[in-house]
Write a structure and sequence with these properties.
Blueprint lengths: L2 H19 L4 H29 L1 H29 L4 H4 L18 H16 L4 H17 L5 H21 L4 H7 L1 H8 L1
Length: 194
Amino acid sequence: MNGFLLQADRFERGLCLRINGLSRFAILTQLFRVVSRLGDGVLWYSVLAILALLGGWAGVRGMLHIGITSLVGVALYKFLKNRLVRQRPFVSHGQIVCRTAPLDQYSFPSGHTLHAVLFTVMFSAYVPALLPWLAGFAVLVAFSRVILGLHYPSDVVVGASLGALLAWMSLMVVEFDTLTLATSFAGWIDIWRV
C-alpha cells in the first residue's frame, strides 16, 4: 500500500474509532440502534405504503417507481459488497465495538445509507415537504452505521453517493408528477406542521 493510502487508512480508522467511542453512552447506543432498525426498511416501506394510500393513482405510480429503484439499489450494493469484500470495522480492528448485529458480512458500501439517501431524494421529488424530515433521518442513519461499529466513514460516503446517483438517474428517466402528489398530501402534511 502506498504512503498516501496508508495515511488515509490510518486517518479513517482513527475517525471510525472516535465516532464508535460515542457508543459508550448507553442512550446514544439505544437511539442509534432504533435509527438503524428503522433504516433496515421499516420507515421506508411505511412511507411507501402511505404514498400509495394517500396519493391516489399518482401515489401508486410513485410507490412502484421508488420501489423498483430501491430494488436496483439492493442489487448494486450486494454486487459491490460481494466483489469488494471489505471486512467490517469491528472485525478488522479489535478496538471498534459492534453495538448491533450486522445484516450481512461485508462493509463496503453501506446499503443502509444508500437506501436512506435514495428514498430521501425520491420521496422528496414526489412530495417536497417531506425533505426536511427525511434528510434529517438519512443523516442519522448514516451516522448510526459508524457509531454502531458496522461501517467506516468511506462506506457511508460511497453509499450516500450511490443512493443519490441512482435516485437522480431514476428521476431523470421516469416521468413523475410532483404537483398531483403534493396536492393529495396537503392535508396529511398539514397535520405534521402543527
